[in-house]
Amino acid sequence: MRLEEQTRIARGAHDALVFIAFTARRSFRLGTLLVAVCVFSYWLVSHSPIDPVDAYVDADVMLVGPEQRAAIAAYWGLDDPPLQRFAKWAAAVAHGDLGTSMIFRQPVSEVLLERFTASLTLMGAAWLLSGLLGFALGIIAGARQGTWIDRVILWYCYTLASTPLFWLGLLLLLVFAVWLGWAPVGLGVPVGVLSAEVTWGDRLRHLVLPAVTLSILGVAAVALHTRQKLVEVLASDYVLFARAKGESEPAILWRHGVRNVALPAVTLQFASLSELFGGAVLVEQVFAYPGLGQAVVQAGLRGDVPLLLGAVMFGAVFVFVGNLLADIIYRFVDPRIRLEGSV
Questions:
Q1: pLDDT, tens only, 90-101
Q2: Measured in Å, how far apart are the chain's first and last C-alpha atoms?
Q3: What is the dihedral of CA 307, 308, 314, 318, to 10 degrees?
Q4: Residue 69: half-sphere exposure toward Cβ, Cα within 13 Å
């Protein structure tokens, strides 16, 4: 066997071992993370002053007698000690059953899937829009450092970074939905229309304003970070050498600028998934958008423990997978970077 072939086989085996070790470490971290967030979330909910029975009967609280309250508590297992309830829930989760939502009276897995589909569309549109717009603004500002364009973009980014998201959502809703009438006033579909008659155009019209509001959250961070990195790259010695060789500014910006700042921008964009998930909760509340964030708020306010814990686990996995994808993408964007644990 030739030396090159032996070297290639040995390198492939080494990469496979590194990938297995990387996957095992990340799986262990995900498991400990889920256990920690579930225990902490349940501890907070169990010490909440909200009475789940009162929240369950809602407006009929004055019409429900003690016997009916006891029957409701027994049906949902609310009369068991907190530790026993958590142990039952954890045992059911271990067998793939997330329980039944007290609010929606459906399996939690079905509620999460339905709500997350709407939230994923919203967060995906906002994530792409904020990444592309933020990266483009950062490149323009960095390439035109010190000019009026740079100052305008900096002012725009600093203004966005210091603006509360819920206030901005209310402002956009007031201007574009109430005053101008260019967008619908909240919700995910038109009111009074059967689901079978709702078109993709209707869903898109209801998605635009919440997605634009949520995307503003990440534009400023990506733009400012990209601008600073590009300024540092354009002031480096190898860019000075490229200018001395007679390379044009557009060629320098593409070969040495955009390529070098793309990786930090990807890093920041994937790391912002947790902020995006939190921002979606606020945006869905402002626009009454029927997503996972709105379901989480309802579960917290009405003491729906199975739905709340299921949503917490779902959110933790979502953010964890986002960070994991960022680590994997590094390997393809920059071949010099290897997965954690490699030599």
A1: 888 888 888 888
A2: 25
A3: 140
A4: 13
